[in-house]
Amino acid sequence: MIRLRHRVRKGDFLLDIDTHIPDSGITGIFGESGSGKTTLLRCIAGLEGGGGPPVHRRNVGYVFQQPTLFAHHDVRGNIEYGARRATSHRIDGEHVIDMLGLGRLLDRRIETLSGGEAQRVAIAAALMRSPDLVLMDEPLASLDRRRKDELLPYFDRLHDELSVPVVYVSHDIEEIGRLCDHLVVLDGGQVTADGSLFDVLSRTDVSPLSGRNAGVVLWAAPVDHEDGLTRFDFGDGDIWVPGEFAVGTRLLRLRIAANDVSIARERPSQSTILNVLRATVEEIHPVDAARALVRLAVGNQDLLAQVTNRSIARLGLATGDRVFAQLKSVTVRR
Amino acid sequence: MNLYGPLWLSMQLAFVTTVVLIGLGTPLAWWLSRTETRWKPVMQAIVAMPIVLPPTVLGFYLLILLGPEGAIGSWWVTLTGNALTFSFTGLVIASTVYSLPFAVQPLQNAFESLPRQTLERAWTLGASPLDAFFSVAVPLAKRGFVSAAVLSFAHTLGEFGVVLMVGGNIPGKTRVVSIAIYDHVEMLDYSSAHQLSLVLLAFAFLALLAMFAVNHRWSRG
């Protein structure tokens, strides 16, 4: 485990953090803007002052939101800058270049790179110094949708193949749900929730994780195809998803947003909803005057449903009730 | 009398002054570009003074300061046994003060246009602040360095009033080309004045042309 313990005041804002993150995998730091995510990352890197060793002796890689590469070097020179100053050489340079698809870009000048290419070079440069920890500050936020989609598969590879722990800051819960294993939620400079991604996402009482940010992530295996749909087995039931995903490969992540889950007392007989799962109401947590988050158990898995308080009253929903969860849409990540 | 002697002396003076100015101006410009002190405008005003001050005023104060009775001059006399005024060393000091803004301002502009994040990236890649300065800030500010060197050199070459006040007119020692041209004109030796003036004119044009050409090429990448 790595301990993050930082306290820094910036004007009226106080960041006060004391938490532990795992020393492997990707830890997401989630929060709305102004929650202190970037400040926390800069504290870890030593860029906010506040004592401790100077930045260059901390051995952390930092990937900024904007990839400010060195214009006086080509791609190769930028990647080698960190390698030349590395104190250890645990990272395999060839593998980094291959993993980020940079082989054909090595002799390119910096100003000829697209935003996504530049960000890949910046990530490679940070990895080449063999850091003990890689910090990424919304590395996709400066890119448009198309570039983002181009870059995400590279992050999937980093997630699967990299042995270095990564701290990934984002305000995009979909990115977090796709890439992270562990999650720390920041609100007003404080940690409001932390734990494994699956556990934190199924909590109903974390205010940054309500509204459109509420939703769970499940691991599921694609098992067969029918009518252009793929059947996923998540251990406690099946979920049908449009599209043909390769069967028999590894587990994929399914994200089910709480806004896409509705609750019925009886199994709907005439509905366009494809996925209806038997569930038990575990917890009802009011979000605001109009809405509540309901945690449902489907076997050993949790689902979140965001419904109105009026509906809860009308159905007379209470903890322990047996209900049906209807999933309006499911997104597959990897 | 050797016509081109003063020209050679001016070249030497301009070269030494430029080297000194890059050495002193770089840390000063770096500090000015990074500092958040409220004294920054005061420092900038002091550095820029030689641009607006009449050279005779600057030369007058330098004469007093560098003279055998002056704060720096008397110290120099006890140290070396020689006076600073009317010597080549004295001219270098005076020229350094006189041309300071021409070195500091292009460097400061170049350093200020460097995003802070570029340096922060260098640090996180394992570069110490000094390493990052030489491996990132200096190469990215190369246009500023070219401008600073060319402007310092050319400006020192053309100085007149300050040299006259501090250096006098000693052939081979302090008689620089601008003073020699003045002397030639005074003695109605227009032919010599023409020759030297033409050399300076051509030099000034070529130096500035080289600077703008280099900056133009680098800016296009």
Largest sheet of chain B: none
The N- to C-terminal Cα distance of chain B equals: 49 Å
Overall, the morphology of chain A is globular
Beta-strand percentage of chain B?
A: under 5%
> Care to count the β-strands of chain A?
18
How would the global form of chain B be characterised? Answer: globular
Strand order of the largest sheet of chain A: 4-5-6-3-7-8
- Computed CA radius of gyration of chain B, to the nearest angstrom: 20 Å
Describe the structure.
The complex is a heterodimer of chains A (334) and B (221). Chain A has helices at residues 37-45, 75-84, 93-99, 115-128, 145-161, 173-179, 197-201, 309-315, and strands at residues 2-10, 13-21, 26-30, 60-63, 133-137, 166-170, 182-187, 190-196, 215-226, 229-233, 238-242, 252-257, 261-264, 275-286, 291-298, 301-308, 322-327, 331-333. With 334 residues, chain A is α+β, with helices and mostly antiparallel strands. In chain A, strands 4-5-6-3-7-8 form a six-stranded mixed beta sheet, sandwiched between helices. A five-stranded antiparallel beta sheet of chain A has the order 11-10-9-12-18. In chain A, a hairpin with a 4-residue loop joins strand 14 (275-286) and strand 15 (291-298). Chain B has helices at 5-34, 40-52, 55-66, 71-80, 88-112, 116-124, 129-140, 142-157, 161-167, 177-186, 190-220. Chain B is mainly α. Chain B has eleven helices and no strands. The chains are: A alpha+beta (334), B mainly alpha (221).
